[in-house]
Structures are given as C-alpha cells and as structure tokens.
C-alpha cells in the first residue's frame, strides 16, 4: 500500500485507534524493520494526526532494537501538540519498556520522568499504568510508588493528574504503601494537594 493510500485510510478513523493499530500491525508483519522505520518517519511528517498516531505505534514497536525509533520518540514526538498522538506516545514508551525489560529500563524511566517536556513525563506515568501489573513493579510496588511520587508537585496539572491516578490504581492492592508515601507530602502545597486528592480516592472514600 502506498503512503498516500495508507494515510487516506488511516484518516477515516475518527474515534479510537483500532484501525490505526491494525494497520501498524500489518506493516510490522509484512515489512522488515528498516522499511517500517522509513514508513513511520514518512507518516510522522503528515499533518493528519491519525498518520502520526500510526507512526508513533510503529516507533514504539521498533524502539528496543532501532535507536533511531527510540530517539524520535524521545526528542521529537514528545513535542507533538495533538493529545491523541501523546496517547500513542504513552503506549509506545510502555512497549519499549516491555520489550527491553522494565528493570533494565529504570534509567530511561527516571530520565523521562525528569525531562523538561511535560508530555515526556506524562508518557511514563500514563504508559505504565497499571504500574504494579507490569513485570518488576509487580514485585517491587514501592519502586513504582517512589517513581510516581516524584511527580506529585509537578508544574503541569496534566502530569499530576496522571501520576495521581496511577498512584490511586496501586492503592487498590497496596494501600499501606501508598498511605506511607502520601503522609510525607506537604499538603499546603497546592500542586501536592491536587495529586493527593486523586491518589487517596480509594483510601479515604
């Protein structure tokens, strides 16, 4: 399928991303890695957000073995202004961690959580949900909580909302660990109080 034809097909997806995901899977099955990378690079330059969503999913599948794909996610996609593309970035980063191994990816996770770009920080917080259902974090929930807690007073409400909701998810199975972390927060801080309200939802009511 030619790029223009593929973009036109992808553009028909107006809600959700099943079509986009399906076409990404077809490309990854029928083409080698280098061909997929070139296709994703071409489609990411499109003004059609569905084409960029497709590209980001492909980058995510290639990121563990193709450095260019990972670097594109890290340095380019994080600046995309379309929220739907950012949802795909979260999925792509989780795919990268899954393929490399979550424990192996701890340095990358910490790097992204400390990045200056809010989309990059949020991609980690959102992408790995539910954190304690992921290998390594399932056995080390305290590590997941500590990493997410680093965002509790983040300057971006977008990021704090994701982190608070992710901590809320974990509190279902590990309430005592989440409570222990929440007790260390300064709730006089507006940002921390915002995240606390989300994170403590299942603990206090």
In short:
The chain is mainly alpha-helical and about 200 residues long. Helix content is about 65%, strand content about 0%.
Describe, in plain words, how this protein is organized in 3D.
This protein is mostly helical. The protein has 2 domains: about 1-85, Methyltransferase, Methionine Synthase (B12-binding Domains), Chain A, domain 1; about 100-205, Serine Threonine Protein Phosphatase 5, Tetratricopeptide repeat (Alpha Horseshoe), CATH 1.25.40.290. Helices cover about 65% and strands about 0% of the residues. The chain has 13 helices and no strands. The chain has helices at about 5-10, 20-30, 35-45, 50-60, 65-75, 85-100, 105-115, 120-125, 140-150, 155-170, 175-180, 190-200, 200-205. Helix 10 (about 155-170) packs across helix 11 (about 175-180). The longest helix is centred in the middle third of the chain and has 18 residues, at about 85-100.
Top keywords for this entry?
single chain; 205 residues; mainly alpha; Methyltransferase, Methionine Synthase (B12-binding Domains), Chain A, domain 1; 13 helices
Q: What is the first-to-last residue Cα distance?
A: 53 Å
**CATH topology label of the largest domain:** Serine Threonine Protein Phosphatase 5, Tetratricopeptide repeat
Q: How many strands appear in the DSSP assignment?
A: 0
User: What is the molecular shape?
Assistant: elongated
* β-sheet strand percentage: under 5%
Please give the domain count: 2
